[in-house]
Structures are given as structure tokens and as C-alpha cells.
Write a structure and sequence with these properties.
Order of helices and strands: EEEEEEEEEEE
Helix content: under 10%
Shape: globular
């Protein structure tokens, strides 16, 4: 079992930056990632990271969003720059303990999810 707790969400103006954190406890994850879901929209992968390195991003978000992991491999970060109103969503952290694909376009492959943190970007 992996317990995930997200933090760092809030309300910002367009163009500003925000960093989200995801603290993992319990079993050691093999892969962690960030996803988001806006009201009325499908869940969208942002970026995923093997705990041994290797990051994969959804192409449309690459460049503005950066996923990183602390040295203890227990906290996953999402650095978001140049935020836009369309980035407003609930942001979720996810993890899996088994190996295999670690891709943001495979959310169903992740076994553990946090409760999310809300990000609201106003114009």
C-alpha cells in the first residue's frame, strides 16, 4: 500500500508559477506521476517518473511543467510555469509499486492515488 498526499495547490493569476508536492508513505513506489482533471473533462496525464530516473511528459504540456523527485524518493514535485486559465483543475498524484510502463497516458496502470489538490488560474 502506498499513501499519497498532495499539497501546494491554490489560486494564482495567469502567467504565474506554482509547485505542487506529493508525499508518499508506505510501500516504495516504482513509478509516480501527476494527472489532472477539470470539471466535465477527461483525466489528463501530465508527467510520470521512474524512481530510478526517466521522466515522460504529455507532449502538449512539456516545457511548462516539470516533474521531479527528491533524493529520498518519497516526494514528487510538479513545477508549473506560465500558468493559463485552462490549467485550472484538480491535480492528482499517482503511484504504482510494480514495474512496467510508467507513462502519463496510462492512468489505469497506476494503483494508488491521492485525494488531489485544486489549482485555479484566473485571467
Amino acid at each position: 500500500q502506498v499513501r499519497l498526499v498532495e499539497s501546494g495547490g491554490g489560486s494564482v493569476q495567469a502567467g504565474e508559477s506554482l509547485t505542487l508536492s506529493c508525499s508518499a508513505s508506505g510501500d516504495a513506489p516504482a513509478c509516480m506521476g501527476w494527472f489532472r482533471q477539470a470539471p466535465g473533462k477527461m483525466r489528463e496525464g501530465i508527467g510520470t517518473m521512474h524512481v530510478d530516473g526517466g521522466t515522460t511528459y504529455t507532449e502538449s504540456l512539456k516545457g511548462r511543467f516539470t516533474v521531479s523527485l527528491d533524493n529520498a524518493k518519497t516526494t514528487l514535485y510538479l513545477q508549473m510555469n506560465s500558468l493559463k486559465p485552462e490549467d485550472s483543475a484538480m491535480y492528482y498524484c499517482a503511484a504504482k509499486t510494480l514495474g512496467g510502463y510508467c507513462w502519463p497516458d496510462l492512468p489505469n496502470s497506476f494503483d494508488y492515488w491521492g485525494r488531489g489538490t485544486q489549482v485555479t488560474v484566473s485571467s
